[in-house]
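4.2 Preliminary Data

To establish feasibility before requesting continued support, the project team ran the inverse folding procedure on a target of 196 residues. The structure was first converted into the token representation described in Section 3, and no sequence information of any kind was made available to the design step. The complete token record follows.
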């Protein structure tokens, strides 16, 4: 009865949900994980916090899920704090201008579709057209620079993601990269939130 829009709700079995639809006598929420063991009438707790994820240098070199929890078996992450997932983007005037190019290692990309430092870039295309290879090669090309990279894997198989992490590690690029995973086996809610 005291839940607010966008608040994280603690569920049994260490699960969370985000309150979205507030009615007079019910609350609609999106469950962040497996929901098969949940049933109507279960007791839940308000957290008083909106959806937030850990931030900081401790995430570099780590593989995390959409909520920032480590899934690489390397222990807990020492983060610098938390940041809300849903924030109002700064206006064009407040943003720092993108004025430094990032060399991807692909001459066709660097000359025809240059990418600037600080810019997000969506790589979209049909299956088996080299999207992952392009992203991984671009990240590996940054290993000797001060550029930090975030690779977000949405809807991929766990084996594919493991190969990506292995390739980054073998090429010395994982230490400057955060890998965020919302694999094909994750809920649609977690896959939706992953790019945030």
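Position-by-position output of the design step:
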């Amino acid at each position: 009865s005291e839940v607010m829009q966008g608040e994280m709700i603690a569920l049994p079995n260490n699960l969370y949900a985000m309150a979205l639809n507030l009615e007079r006598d019910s609350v609609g929420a999106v469950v962040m994980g497996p929901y098969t063991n949940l049933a109507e009438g279960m007791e839940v707790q308000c957290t008083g916090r909106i959806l937030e994820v850990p931030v900081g240098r401790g995430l570099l070199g780590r593989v995390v899920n959409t909520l920032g929890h480590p899934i690489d078996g390397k222990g807990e992450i020492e983060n610098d704090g938390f940041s809300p997932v849903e924030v109002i983007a700064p206006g064009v005037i407040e943003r720092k201008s993108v004025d430094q190019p990032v060399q991807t290692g692909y001459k066709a990309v660097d000359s025809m579709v240059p990418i600037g430092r600080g810019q997000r870039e969506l790589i979209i295309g049909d299956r088996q057209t080299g999207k992952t290879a392009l992203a991984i090669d671009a990240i590996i090309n940054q290993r000797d620079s001060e550029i930090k990279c975030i690779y977000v894997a949405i809807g991929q198989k766990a084996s594919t993601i493991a190969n990506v992490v292995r390739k980054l590690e073998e090429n010395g690029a994982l230490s400057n990269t955060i890998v965020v995973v919302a694999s094909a086996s994750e809920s649609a809610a977690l896959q939706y939130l992953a790019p945030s």
